[in-house]
Amino acid sequence: LSAGIDGTGTTTASVRITDGNGVPLDKDGLYTLGSVSLSFVLASLGTEADGRVGQYTAYTTRSVTSPITNTTVEQAATDTGGTLVEQGIGQGTYLYTFGTRVPGADRARTHTVGVYGTRTIGEARAFGDATLDFVPSGAPVTQRRETALTSACNGCHSSLSAHGGARAKVE
Q1: Which residues lie below 8 Å from residue 89, measured CB to CB, with a gap of 6+?
Q2: Which candidate, 86, 132, 98, places its Cα nearest to that of 11?
Q3: Less Cβ around it within 10 Å: N or C end of the chain?
Q4: Are 169 and 131 in contact (CB under 8 A)?
């Protein structure tokens, strides 16, 4: 997984999708058994006034209206309107260009791309997810938000999963 944001605010992420044995998969299931659906999220990591790591601010959002209060809020969500292009036939490599543009993104701030996927073979589904911290300027990542680790959660909850099983990590 690699990512970047160019000067126009266009974000791209390169991904490689494989099965549990490291065999490359194609998203449409043309060369390998089962299709793979991928979803992407993008956020920037804030810094508190005292220099401590702050909160994430999601770039990929959606408006949600409460049926009870009729209040509408912005909520973190997966990207919409992006494009996924295969980079090498049968290699499992793809370039995702986000539909969400981020002009004016702070190029010195840590950003995080998340991708999660579901592979469907008949009635069976397999899941995978990954995140990548990066700084658009190309500088090394010096800040990460690690308030919880998947290994700590799994210590009590066996195998952590959310949103139908597609997300199994908290990092």
Answers
A1: 31
A2: 98
A3: N
A4: yes
Q: If we measure between CA atoms, which residue out of 40, 41, 54 comes closest to residue 144? A: 54
pLDDT digits (tens, 9 = 90+) for 144-162: 877 666 566 656 666 655 5
- In the chain, the amino acid numbered 170 is V
Q: How far apart are CA 109 and CA 141, in angstroms?
A: 9
- pTM for the full model? 0.83
DSSP per residue over 20-74, as a string? TTS-B--TTSSSSSSEEEEEEEEEEEEE-TTS-EEEEEESSEEEEE-TTT--EEE
Q: List Cα–Cα distances, 124 to 101, 121, 132, 158, in angstroms.
A: 35, 5, 28, 21
State both tokens at 79. Answer: 């990207």
Taking only the tens place, the pLDDT of each residue in 126-145 is: 999 999 999 999 999 998 87
